[in-house]
Write a structure and sequence with these properties.
There is one protein chain. By secondary structure, the protein is of the alpha/beta class. It is built from 15 helices and 15 strands. The strands form 3 sheets. Strands 8-5-4-9-10-11-14-15 form an 8-stranded mixed beta sheet. Strands 2-7-6-13-12 form a 5-stranded mixed beta sheet. It is globular.
Length: 476
């Protein structure tokens, strides 16, 4: 399996980094200013080496897309007082070429934890791209300005802020709200960082700005989102944007709307998903469009993200491994209202866990799109999945799962896109996932109870309520 993965990764990176040898071949930085001279290959200048770090040789037809991006003003952050410096002005597009102009600007839809980490990390690279947050209501825009127009990431008790971002309001949910900075420009590079249940609604507000030339990078959890988008929003395959998925293993916890704690360093697996479904043949490695190539190169050159490119099949299996953890650990912590480590060393919980895992393992190993993959039965066997879940529970023993935090705060969970996805795929295959279906309904019931408690705890001004006269019954 490892040999196959290495070969697939080499094919993917060959399409990304290979170049035609010419007499004037030079290292090309994806964000070099056209006014900055290109240093010779034998240059010993440390500053030039730092500026060209992560640069790659591209085919001649792709070089104009990334070689003339210009950035003016401050191109590096100062790091004074833990705040990354703002960039005064930026070129938003790469020079025109035969394939048109490719904008450098990266949009981030929502303020999810991974989206905040991506924005913060991109703000710290040399010659950072312009970044715009797409926010969905005026209240969160107000929080952005009250919080100093910056993103805060706290790691090991140390706070670091990044600034220099733009903000757009995607829609107005209430009468009289202004369409703050709302534009009609086409979005080429978009990072989707909203909860899975809100993805379709959030994208519907900017669907008119997305087209075939756009690339959507989904960094939210859950599976089945893309199928829902194709059915409800992007129904025409000819005009449908390209889909890229990022599977993150970074440990993040929400502190406020624009502040998160990074308590565990992980990786982000990136891959472009084929429009015609999955398979083990060559179609599993789709051709990268200019915008997809730009997003992939920008993410992978950001060292703090630890991002890596994967083939669609490898990415799909990585998604399932993360899905299993959420479908078992997160759901059980909600039902028992406990931390992750409390699930260990408990005979009753272990029995329930094994019943859940046996159903999930059978569904994954029976999926038609995964048939033919070497060592599939071993990678998703019940014993291997149990070892993975127990290891996760030990590593995060004193942490509460993200689903439990959402339930406690009365927010919607992603249960329909984790356990619910397993139940739906099992139904299609004729496999009845009774245990997972029961657990899914228990989580929804728990969420409903907590929401009612929070609604009942809201203060109410009883002076404005109508007075109800009490009637006393007379004895006859």
């Amino acid at each position: 399996m490892k040999a196959d993965r290495v070969v697939n990764n080499k094919e993917l990176w060959a399409s990304l980094h290979s170049g035609h040898t010419t007499s004037a071949e030079q290292h090309v930085s994806p964000v070099r200013s056209p006014k900055t001279p290109i240093p010779p290959a034998d240059s010993n200048d440390d500053e030039n080496k730092d500026r060209d770090r992560g640069a790659a040789k591209l085919p001649n037809d792709m070089a104009p897309l990334v070689s003339t991006a210009a950035v003016t003003g401050k191109s590096r952050y100062s790091g004074v007082d833990g705040v990354r410096g703002e960039i005064s002005t930026m070129e938003d597009t790469v020079e025109n070429n035969a394939m048109g102009a490719l904008p450098r600007r990266i949009y981030i839809l929502g303020n999810g934890n991974v989206g905040k980490l991506v924005a913060h990390s991109l703000a710290g690279i040399p010659n950072r791209p312009p970044i715009t947050f797409l926010l969905h209501y005026q209240g969160i825009v107000n929080q952005w300005y009250k919080g100093g127009k910056s993103i805060e990431i706290i790691q090991h008790g140390t706070s670091e802020r990044s600034s220099g971002f733009d903000v757009e309001l995607t829609s107005s949910h209430f009468p009289g709200e202004p369409s703050y900075l709302q534009t009609r420009s086409t979005i080429h590079s978009l990072v989707v960082s909203v909860k899975a249940p809100a993805t379709v609604e959030a994208l519907s507000t900017i669907a008119h700005r997305l087209g075939r030339e756009s690339t959507l990078l989904f960094v939210n959890d859950g599976m089945g989102i893309l199928d829902e988008l194709n059915q409800k929003l992007f129904t025409d395959p000819e005009t449908r944007p390209g889909y890229m998925v990022g599977v993150s293993t970074h440990g993040l916890r929400t502190l406020s709307a624009f502040s998160s704690e990074l308590y565990g360093i992980g990786t982000i697996g990136l891959g472009l998903l084929p429009q015609q479904g999955f398979g083990v043949s060559e179609q599993a490695s789709p051709i990268l469009s200019p915008s997809a190539r730009y997003v992939l190169r920008t993410m992978t050159r950001t060292t703090s993200l630890a991002a890596m490119g994967l083939t669609a099949i490898d990415l799909y299996q990585l998604q399932f491994e993360k899905l299993v953890s959420k479908a078992v650990v997160d759901t059980l912590t909600v039902v028992f209202d406990c931390r992750n480590g409390d699930l260990l060393d408990n005979f009753g919980v272990t029995r329930v866990m094994r019943l859940l895992i046996s159903e999930i393992s059978l569904v994954i190993r029976s999926l038609p799109e995964l048939q033919g993959i070497p060592n599939l039965d071993l990678r998703f066997s019940p014993s291997k999945l149990e070892y993975q879940i127990v290891s996760l529970a030990k590593t995060t023993a004193f942490r509460e799962s993200s689903m439990l935090q959402e339930v406690k705060h009365g927010r919607m969970t992603e249960i329909d896109y984790s356990t619910g996805y397993i139940v739906r795929r099992g139904k299609d295959l004729g496999i009845r996932c009774v245990m997972n279906y029961m657990l899914m309904q228990m989580v929804k019931g728990k969420q409903n109870m907590e929401s009612r408690k929070l609604e009942g705890s809201l203060p109410v001004d009883k002076s404005e309520l109508p007075v109800i006269e009490k009637r006393t019954s007379r004895k006859q």
